[in-house]
Design a protein that fits this description.
Elements: H1 2-16, E1 30-32, E2 39-41, E3 46-54, E4 69-73, E5 79-84, E6 88-91, H2 94-100, H3 107-123, E7 137-140, E8 144-147, E9 150-159, E10 162-168, H4 176-179, E11 182-192, H5 204-213, H6 218-246, H7 250-265, H8 268-279, H9 284-291, H10 300-324, H11 328-336, H12 341-352, H13 354-369, H14 373-379, H15 389-398, H16 402-430, H17 432-435, H18 454-464, H19 473-487
Parallel strand pairs: 6-7
Antiparallel strand pairs: 1-2, 3-11, 4-10, 5-6, 5-11, 8-9, 9-10
Helix pairs in contact: 6-10, 6-13, 7-10, 8-14, 10-13, 10-14, 11-19, 13-16, 15-16
Length: about 500
């Protein structure tokens, strides 16, 4: 309100002294499009289209030459507003100043530009420093503009076909990022007011339908494909590693357990960096796969590798804990009955430990579903190839697309909830026989059919059991038979 009052005073004074103003009378409202990339003021000669906000620039060399702190532009003729910690610099190309009669030395013309830029910038600010908070403004139509020791260059072609805004100091020792502290850069096009297209927002259902129709769903398919393939590798590798560590010496167990568990302790970005150093295109290992047409870095395969590495420890720890909790006398009893290690693993260990294994699978799947740091390091952010939902959430938020950010967040929450609920119900169904055990703790033996059922079967079983004086005794064998009957649902 105070700014509008001051603006009205400035305009009145300008009219009294014959200074050209951008508009007359009361300051109109700015009509901003539903997409937040265009705006128009009634009575103004021009409107704004194609508004963009670049949150972060680059302080690196371009083609091995350091020019200063740079922002990338879509073209040479763009209106640019650079917001720093202490002031804002607005560049309007001279051709547009002449076409629309913009006098950058006129306070009313400056206020009109600010009236356009401030609401558009605030709509994409994501809570960061906005132009509206800035008190000191500089306006120029020159491609090179100096503020103290700092020089701003607009629309400079540093590479063929690539245009930049360059912020440079007096010499190479001047740290632009630390001294100037650029916050963000806004860019847009000026068009005739009659030619501007300002999309108005429809009703809630129309907005939702339009949003869903224009949504890019590739992160969902990439995530499902990545997690589906990764969980298969994680499941079998986790079981194999857990079974392997149970069959080696205690000292070797400590070493391998540390190796298998360390990805769960390290930050995902560290895992991604180590994998990039191992599988990158500059390594012999990475170049080999690159030459055979199966790249391991910055490809879809990299997303699977990243998901497997970070999710594997959860599956391994769950499976090993489940196997260690089994009664060793029961396993030894199975061996005395002539069962091989493979049969013991498949017919006895897996069914008894299935509840914990299913929980480990759920945890591993959820971890792969939400993987971000390792995937971004190793696979990058390639739309339709390596951009998973977590990466899409981050970059949509950074680009100011809050609606897409909320959409993918809700999708991830709903999808995770449904998957975990389904597997929990399935796991409960597979272990239902335990809930029906009698009070003495023994699984019920269902009636047997056929010639070998009844007493004849019991005599055959007793003949195969070791004597009561053996190390295992009848108790372990009875528990083994009860367990096998219970696991197999009454069949033998």
């Amino acid at each position: 309100m105070l700014r509008r009052c001051l603006l009205a005073v400035v305009m009145a004074c300008a009219c009294l002294f014959g200074t050209a103003t951008a508009w007359a009378g009361e300051v109109p409202e700015v009509d901003v499009s539903a997409d937040g990339d265009a705006a128009r003021i009634e009575g103004a000669a021009y409107a704004v289209e194609g508004f963009q906000r670049s949150q972060v620039g680059s302080n690196r060399a371009i083609d091995e030459v350091y020019y200063g702190y740079t922002y990338r532009l879509d073209g040479p003729e763009m209106l640019v507003a650079v917001n720093t910690a202490d002031y804002a610099v607005v560049y309007v190309p001279q051709a547009w100043c002449e076409q629309f009669g913009i006098d950058l030395s006129d306070a009313a013309a400056q206020e009109q530009l600010r009236a356009y830029l401030e609401p558009l910038d605030a709509g994409l600010s994501k809570g960061n420093l906005t132009l509206a908070r800035q008190e000191v403004w500089h306006f120029t139509s020159e491609t090179s503009f100096a503020v103290g020791e700092v020089t701003f260059e607009f629309g400079r072609e540093l590479k063929e076909g690539y245009y930049y805004v360059v912020i440079a100091g007096p010499d190479d020792a001047f740290d632009v990022k630390a001294e100037v502290r650029p916050a963000q850069m806004d860019s847009c096009m000026l068009v005739a007011a009659d030619d501007a297209v300002i999309a108005s927002a429809g009703g809630p259902l129309e907005q939702l339908a339009d949003f869903l129709a224009n949504m890019d769903y590739s992160p969902l398919w990439v995530t499902l494909k990545t997690c589906g393939v990764a969980i298969v590798f994680v499941f079998f590798l986790g079981l194999a590693a857990a079974y392997f560590t149970l069959r080696i010496s205690k000292r070797a167990q400590d070493i391998f357990d540390t190796i298998f568990t360390i990805p769960m302790v390290l930050p995902p970005t560290v895992c991604g960096f180590l994998l990039l150093m191992l599988l990158g295109r500059n390594t012999a290992f990475g170049r080999f796969f690159q030459d055979v047409g199966f790249p391991l870095a910055f490809s879809w395969q990299a997303t699977v590798i990243a998901a497997v590495v970070v999710a594997f420890p959860l599956m391994y720890r769950s499976a090993r804990g489940a196997f260690e909790s089994l009664d060793p006398n029961m396993l030894d009893a199975a061996r005395t009955l002539g069962w091989s290690n493979g049969r013991i693993f498949v017919r006895l260990m897996l069914p008894l430990a299935w509840s914990s294994i299913a929980s480990g699978t759920v945890l591993a799947f959820a971890r792969a579903l939400g993987e971000f740091g390792c995937t971004l390091f190793l696979a990058g952010n390639q739309l339709g190839s390596t951009r998973t939902i977590p990466i899409a959430i981050y970059f949509e938020w950074m680009n100011g697309n809050q609606a897409a950010t909320w959409f993918w967040t809700i999708v991830l929450i709903v999808f995770s909830f449904m998957v975990i609920l389904f597997i929990n119900l399935w796991s409960r169904h597979t272990t239902r026989y335990r809930e029906k055990a009698p009070a003495d703790g023994r699984s019920p033996k269902p009636p047997r059919e056929g010639r070998r059922g009844g007493r004849g079967r019991r005599r055959d079983d007793a003949a195969r059991r070791p004597a009561a004086g053996t190390a295992l005794g009848e108790g372990a064998v009875e528990r083994l038979e009860d367990t096998v009957w219970g696991v197999e649902g009454g069949t033998r």
